Amino acid sequence: MMRIGVAALALALAGPAIAAEAPPLEGGATFISPMGEPFRSTDGLSGAEHWFREADADHDGRITREEMRADAERFFKKLDQDGDGEIGPDEITRYETEIAPEIRVASTMGDMSLAKTDDQGNVTPPPYPTRLGAGRFGYLDMPEPIITADTNMDRAITRAEFDTAAFRRFKMLDTDGDGAITRAELPKLSAKAATSFGHGHGGGGGGGRGGRGHGRH
Ligand SMILES: [Ca+2]
Ligand SMILES: [Ca+2]
Ligand SMILES: [Ca+2]
């Protein structure tokens, strides 16, 4: 896509000018943050870089535990539309269908663009699972990052559960355990990964625990 070319060019041009600092994060225009928030970049920077800049509130190049907590809290307020302190079933559905429809699982069999067809026309899907849902667009392999935070499985996510999830995800990404996430320790995202198969292959379930697609908002 054109956007990838522009992003690559922007990174190449930005490189020498800010050599003293970490270069902008790589990745595609669409990014799902560790707490599940979608970032859709249109300016050539990766969606991941937009998330990092927003989460790193004091712009010191390090996302601390407190900054991660604030990032989670800010998104929690967006998700908790009725303000009752929980992300309830309808708000989960709204997340999956309106806020971040990209995460809907395309296939539980893997990326069908990698399927092999023999000379009799028999199709063999890739035998390995590729990342699903939101995992295709972010650092953590979680198909549905909101549901994943529902630790007591009652289809509502409290503020405390969301904060616990933020802490766990923070620790997963702070790989050197120094109390901050830096650009250098985040996994590399390929620009292609997030665009390799768009949504709309006819969702194969997975991800959430039922209850999706009732069209209630
Ligand atoms: Ca910071
Ligand atoms: Ca609510
Ligand atoms: Ca660290």
UniProtKB/TrEMBL annotation:
<feature type="domain" description="EF-hand">
    <location>
        <begin position="161"/>
        <end position="196"/>
    </location>
</feature>
<dbReference type="InterPro" id="IPR018247">
    <property type="entry name" value="EF_Hand_1_Ca_BS"/>
</dbReference>
<keyword id="KW-0732">Signal</keyword>
<dbReference type="InterPro" id="IPR011992">
    <property type="entry name" value="EF-hand-dom_pair"/>
</dbReference>
<feature type="compositionally biased region" description="Gly residues">
    <location>
        <begin position="199"/>
        <end position="210"/>
    </location>
</feature>
<feature type="domain" description="EF-hand">
    <location>
        <begin position="43"/>
        <end position="78"/>
    </location>
</feature>
<feature type="signal peptide">
    <location>
        <begin position="1"/>
        <end position="19"/>
    </location>
</feature>
<dbReference type="Pfam" id="PF13202">
    <property type="entry name" value="EF-hand_5"/>
</dbReference>
<feature type="region of interest" description="Disordered">
    <location>
        <begin position="194"/>
        <end position="217"/>
    </location>
</feature>
<dbReference type="InterPro" id="IPR002048">
    <property type="entry name" value="EF_hand_dom"/>
</dbReference>
<protein>
    <recommendedName>
        <fullName>EF-hand domain-containing protein</fullName>
    </recommendedName>
</protein>
